[in-house]
Amino acid sequence: MATIVLADDHHVVRQSLRLLLESEPDFHILAEASDGLEAVAEVERLQPEVLVLDMVMPGLSGIEVTRRTATCSPRTQVVILSMYQNEAYVLEALRAGARAYVLKSSKSEELVHAVREAACGRRYLSAPVSERIISDYIDRVESFILDPYEALTTREREVLHLSAEGLSNAEIATRLSISQRTAETHRANFMRKIGLRNQTDVIRYALRRGIIQPEH
Fold first, then answer.
1. Which of 14, 71, 89, 182 has the fewest CB atoms inside 10 Å of its own CB, making it the most exposed?
2. What pLDDT, in 10s, does the model give residues 119-139?
C-alpha cells in the first residue's frame, strides 16, 4: 500500500484529492499540509512513499519543498500538481527531484496513474509535456550552466520565497523564528549571490523561477 502526504493551501482541493486517492484500495493518506513549511515537516516526520504537492504553496514553493524532500526523506517520491505546462516550470520540478508532473487540467485517472508510477519509482509527465525534450534540456543546462540558486543556503531560499511574497524583514523573522537582523543578513546574502538589486528584482526573479506564481 502506498502511503501519501497531500500538500495544497486550499482546504477544498485537499479534501477532493483525499476523496479521490482514498477511493483506491492501495493508497493510504497519512497527513495533509497547507503550506510549504508544514509539508516539509510532515514528510520528515512521516517518511511517506509519495508526496502529492501543489506547485504554488505559501511559505515555500513546491519546487523548494521537493528539494527539501530529497534530503529529509529520500524514499519519498514527489508528484507535482500544476496549472502551468511551461517547460521552464517542468524543468525546475525535475531538476529539484520530482518524479511526476501532472497538470491540474488532467483527468482524475491521470493523477491516480501518476501516483502509482511515482510510488514504483517511475517518471510520469502529463501531455503535452515531452519527456524526451525535457531530458535533453536538463542535460544541456546541467552541462553548461552553473545556477546561482544552487549556491543559496536552505535559510536563504526560505527568506527569498517569503521576500518574494512581500513579507518584511520583521515578518520573515517572526515566521522563521529568527532575529530581524538575521533575516536582513539572509536577504542581503541571497540578493548578492543571485545579483538582485531591489525588491522588484526579487519578485521578477521569483516569478521567472516559479518560486511564486503570477496573480490572476
1. 71
2. 999 989 887 776 666 666 666
